[in-house]
């Protein structure tokens, strides 16, 4: 639902109503950065905890990283704004003087990388343990999770490279809604996988 609200706000931004540009930008940034992305990361956390049988060290590592991701997401709000363009319309831009926005993407990429590695380790372990079976459900779910998390890591690294390579805040800021939209894909499937594994 947060992703839907963010997309509606983004549409309003692109329609460029001058009176509501700043409000739509604030709604988009708040729901996208403070609610949607951390919520997706939290689902990752529960999924990995389930496949690692709630191992305490995994719980502490992922919780610590999740708090950092959430904190940088909140901080990123203060480095971004929505403003009207001279040609009409408006856009969300990030400040060239703040590294907070970049730090948020780096924290998210590290978190996704750790989740990917933990899931990959469990997949390899399961494949070895259940090699006599053709298609155990848990191995299939782990394989799909590894593929999804690999895509998340690639998206995260691409975001960071894009933000560093493109110096124009207006152009570089297009990566923010793109990242949130791509991260939201498969969100429901990941949650259902978590439920299946926990049972």
TrEMBL record:
Keywords: Membrane, Transmembrane, Transmembrane helix
Residue intervals passing through the bilayer: 22-45, 57-78, 105-124, 145-163
Source species, domain of life: Eukaryota
Protein name as annotated: Uncharacterized protein
